[in-house]
Amino acid sequence: MKTINYIQDTKKFWQAHKESRDAIDRDIAHRPSAEQRVINAKMRANHTAMRNAKKIA
User: Fold this and answer.
1) In whole angstroms, what is the distance from residue 25 CA to residue 32 CA?
2) Nearest-CA neighbor of 23 among 8, 2, 4, 37?
3) How many CB atoms lie within 10 A of CB 29?
4) Across residues 21-31, what is the average pLDDT?
5) pTM for this predicted structure
6) Residue 16 buriedness (CB in 10 A; 0-12 / 13-18 / 19+)
7) What distance in Å separates the CA atoms of residue 13 and residue 5, rounded to the nearest whole number?
8) Which of 5, 1, 40, 28 is nearest to 17 (CA)?
9) 17, 1 in Cβ contact below 8 A?
10) What's the mean pLDDT in 15-29?
11) Which of 16, 26, 45, 57 is most buried per CB count within 10 Å?
12) Is the dihedral of CA 25, 30, 33, 36 positive or negative?
């Protein structure tokens, strides 16, 4: 994502986030299905790890 002061403009943040996410999705869609499964499994594992991570106060 671009370097922008996101704290002041959340609309720009979410727009940049969506563009970045769409680019990743397009990249994954053009890969072989075996590679897509590996990438999706890694993304799912990362998501689970982040949800289960201990919060730092």
Assistant:
1) 13
2) 2
3) 8
4) 93
5) 0.60
6) middle
7) 8
8) 1
9) yes
10) 93
11) 16
12) negative
